[in-house]
């Protein structure tokens, strides 16, 4: 498998560490803003409806920003794990190296432009990650793989008799069978 050199990975790691520190700092600032706003809201909530709705909107906006920032922090942590595992910069769809310019622009990316196009067009049924996962499962042994062997069909049933009598019950006579007295 082709991959970036250890020197290249070290350069990418420094950039990611810098972005990670900035993102963590921004996340802390956003959380502080939320706590300040929630304290302010709780003090005079209900006094002015216009001010209350503005505060609620601002709180929703801050919460959305926190969620996006938290996702960014997680993506940066995942990128550091890929660097540690020496698979950073390898497209998860095609298995080829992601262009260096793309990695510099979006260091958390896991797909090359070609891989993104293939995935978006539906060209692929299975990604490189799926192939790698299946190979890993095969290496772990047969007990880890769930077999997809189909069970044989049950034997065909013999045709049932037209009238089957249940034990202990008398059959009912139909109108045609009733005795005329």
Question: Can you walk through the features of this model?
Answer:
This protein is an all-alpha fold. The protein folds into 2 domains: 1-88; 90-147, no CATH class. It has 5 helices and no strands. The N and C termini lie far apart (96 Å). The model is unreliable at 141-149 (pLDDT under 50). Residues 13-79 form a coiled coil. Keywords: Coiled coil.
The proportion of strand residues reads under 5%
Q: Count of helical segments?
A: 5
Shape, please? flat
Rg from alpha-carbon coordinates: 33 Å
Helical content stands at 55-70%
Q: Which segments are poorly predicted (pLDDT under 50) over 5 or more consecutive residues?
A: 141-149
Cα-to-Cα separation, first versus last residue: 96 Å
| Biggest beta sheet attributes | none
Order of helices and strands: HHHHH
- The total domain count is 2
According to DSSP, the number of beta strands is 0
Mean model confidence by pLDDT:
78
Structural class: mainly alpha
Summarize the structure.
By secondary structure, this protein is mainly alpha-helical. The protein has helices spanning 6-44, 49-84, 100-105, 113-121, 128-140.
List keywords for this structure.
single chain; mainly alpha; 181 residues; 5 helices; 57% helix
Element layout with pairings:
Elements: H1 6-44, H2 49-84, H3 100-105, H4 113-121, H5 128-140
Helix pairs in contact: 1-2
Region (Disordered): 135-181
Coiled coil: 13-79
Organism: Neolewinella lacunae
């Amino acid at each position: 498998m082709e991959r970036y050199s250890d020197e290249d990975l070290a350069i990418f790691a420094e950039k990611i560490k810098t972005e990670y520190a900035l993102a963590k700092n921004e996340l802390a600032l956003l959380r502080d803003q939320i706590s300040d706003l929630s304290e302010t809201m709780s003090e005079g909530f209900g006094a002015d409806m216009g001010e209350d709705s503005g505060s609620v909107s601002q709180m929703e906006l801050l919460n959305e920003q926190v969620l996006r920032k938290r996702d960014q922090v997680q993506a940066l942590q995942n990128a550091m794990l890929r660097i540690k595992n020496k698979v950073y910069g390898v497209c998860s769809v095609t298995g080829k190296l992601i262009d260096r310019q793309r990695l510099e622009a979006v260091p958390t990316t896991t797909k090359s432009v070609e891989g993104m196009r293939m995935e978006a067009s539906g060209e692929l049924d299975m990604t490189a990650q799926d192939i790698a996962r299946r190979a890993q499962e095969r290496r772990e042994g047969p007990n880890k793989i769930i077999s997809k062997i189909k069970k044989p069909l049950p034997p065909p049933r013999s045709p049932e008799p037209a009238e089957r009598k249940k034990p202990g019950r008398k059959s009912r006579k139909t109108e045609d069978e009733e005795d005329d007295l």
